[in-house]
Structures are given as C-alpha cells and as structure tokens.
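Example 4.3 (complexes with small molecules)
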Amino acid sequence: MREALIIVDFQRDFTPPDGALAVPQGDRIADRLNDLAADSRFAYVVATRDWHPPDHSSFLAHGGSWPEHCVRGTLGAELHPALDTARIDTILDKGQAGETDGYSAFEGGELAALLRELDVTAVSVVGLATDYCVLNTARDALREGLVVTVDISATRAVDLQPGDGERALEELRTLGAEVVDLSKRV
Ligand SMILES: [Zn+2]
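Answer. The structure with zinc ion bound is encoded below.
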C-alpha cells in the first residue's frame, strides 16, 4: 500500500501570531508536520495552499463568511516558514475558483488524478484546519476510495463553535477514517 501525506494549508494567514485567519495554536504543529514529511511511511508528500483571487466569494466583503485570507501571491498565502519544503514533492493550490469555498484539496480532480498516477491508495491528512479544509479533504479522500488516516497531533481546529473540531473528527471516524495520534507510535 503506497501512502501519501497531505499537508493542508499550513500557511502564514492560518497561523498565529500574524495570520489574517489564524487557527488557535496552528503554528504549534510545525515540528510534527516536518517529522511526518520526513517519515519513510509516506511515498509522496503534497502540501496544499489556499490560494484565492482578491475578490474571492468566501471573503466577508464579497458575501462570504471569512475575513480576507490567503490571497494568491501575498505574504499571507505563503507556506509557514517553519515548514521544511525540501520534503514536499508537490505544492497544490486550491480555492482558486471564485464561486466555491475551496475547502477540499480534491476539488477540481487534480489531486485524485495525481494520486492515481502514483499508485497511492492511502493518505494521511494533516494541517489546518481540522473542522474545515482537513475535514473536507479527508471526506473527499474517502469518497475517492482511499484509506484515510487523520493524525490529530498534526492538526488544529478553528472551533468557531466549541467542539467543531471534535465533531469533525467524529464524522470522519463514522465515515471510515482512522483518527490517530501518530506522535505516540513506538
Ligand atoms: Zn480560504
């Protein structure tokens, strides 16, 4: 079984202290992400970036629910500087279409095609945030028929409503994902 690691949206705008849409403690997962990316368990490492046009429909000013974030080409859209990009095989930009939130890395079909080409049948999904882009990416991975693991030591939730992150993990468990703490492996 060939497994890929999908690092979701570990970007400046999603991380404290300066991110426009910072996920609480989002910066704390950097070491875990680097450890995972270096792990020989994974045959391939993909990092996604939320990569919006300036007038994206998910922004408050354009009828959406979020402050402006991850506008393509801006500093805030860059991957977090603590992420070791030498370990990353492919950077995939998502959320480029104006009309969808762009929560899932599988939107558009490019990632599914890449994984098929690589004979990858399993993915571990980590990054930000548990209750949005990690949830939607993992859900779509399951729909694609992939074996899905979510490593809770390498993801953090927005928790707009308290418990959103836990509910997202529960939903993924119900759908068939394995929700684990890989940092506790011996
Ligand atoms: Zn976004």
